[in-house]
Design brief:
Elements (H helix, E strand, L loop, with lengths): L3 E4 L3 H7 L2 H17 L15 E7 L2 E10 L4 E9 L3 H9 L1
Parallel strand pairs: 1-4
Antiparallel strand pairs: 2-3, 3-4
Length: 96
């Protein structure tokens, strides 16, 4: 089953806020990893239980990509990408 990408309107501005080499790696590598196995990451808990979080580290900085799998439409909807710091508080604001 091939999933398609969809993005929150602020996702592009998230990419602009992080290091260019990391943003490039996200576009070229990490989004493909998520698309190839969207159920491979654990869902979050509580109010955000419909969202999954993909983790990776680059240059000793931890990053997160939050996304939702819409199985019946075969879409992976990316909400946010950012460093780990305050990630879940920001995500809760973005999704409310």
């Amino acid at each position: 089953m091939a999933f398609a990408d969809a993005f929150h309107p602020k996702f592009k501005s998230d990419l602009k806020k992080i290091d260019k080499s990391v943003a490039k790696e996200i576009k070229e590598k990490h989004l493909d990893i998520i698309l190839n196995d969207p159920m491979g990451n654990e869902p979050l808990k509580g109010k955000l239980s419909h969202i999954r979080s993909y983790h990776f580290q680059k240059n000793s900085t931890q990053y997160r990509i939050a996304y939702e799998v819409i199985e019946d439409e075969e879409i992976v909807f990316h909400y946010m990408v950012a460093t780990r710091e305050n990630f879940y508080k920001k995500l809760e604001i973005r999704t409310s």
